[in-house]
Specification:
This protein is an alpha+beta fold. The protein has one domain: Gcn5-related N-acetyltransferase (GNAT) (Aminopeptidase, 3-Layer(aba) Sandwich), CATH 3.40.630. It is 33% helix and 21% strand. It has 4 helices and 5 strands. The protein has a 5-stranded mixed beta sheet, sandwiched between helices. The N and C termini lie far apart (51 Å).
Length: 164
């Protein structure tokens, strides 16, 4: 059953096409590089190269990569791409999905589109037999952390580090 998300203008999730993949890959790599460098996971100088390698290894066959699903988040009116969602199988939990990335484009932020897209994905996963979904979020990303808390995600692990 679809949730009532409380707004008339609902985004939708549409399967990413092979034609759209190059743009998706560029956006995901750029986003992942920025996020990872900001979190101190990689240097600013090496972030783009590192993120490119990571994404291209994970999505070796693009939209045809087994056990990876790529979606365009489409805004309702006007019907326009508002971001992307990428999920796969969680290797650590049986019957769970793993959210690799959700990206909401700048002009669509602060409009609940990310929250609504997550709810749509959760509904879709439940219908497909998944029992849960896990994800990673960087500690500095307070906006995303708040969204996940509001969606009732719970912290299951913490990675703590110190630069020496």
């Amino acid at each position: 059953m679809q949730r009532n998300h409380g707004q008339d203008k609902m985004p939708r999730l549409r399967k990413l096409s092979a034609r759209e993949y190059p743009k998706f890959e560029r956006e995901i790599i750029r986003f992942y590089a920025e996020q990872s460098a900001r979190a101190g996971r990689v240097s600013q100088e090496g972030a783009l190269e590192w993120a490119t390698k990571e994404v291209q290894e994970d999505l070796e066959y693009g939209v045809e990569t087994a056990e990876h699903w790529l979606y365009v988040i489409e805004n309702d009116k006007p019907r326009k791409a508002a971001g992307y969602i990428w999920h796969g199988i969680d290797d650590e939990h049986e019957n769970w999905a793993f959210l690799y990335s959700i990206v909401v484009f700048e002009q669509f932020r602060n409009k609940k589109i990310g929250t609504q897209a997550m709810q749509l994905l959760e509904d879709k996963l439940k219908k497909e037999g998944f029992e849960g979904m896990s994800l990673h979020v960087y500690a500095y990303n307070n906006i995303a952390r708040k969204m996940y808390r509001n969606l009732r995600y719970k912290t299951s692990a913490l990675t703590i580090g110190k630069k020496l």
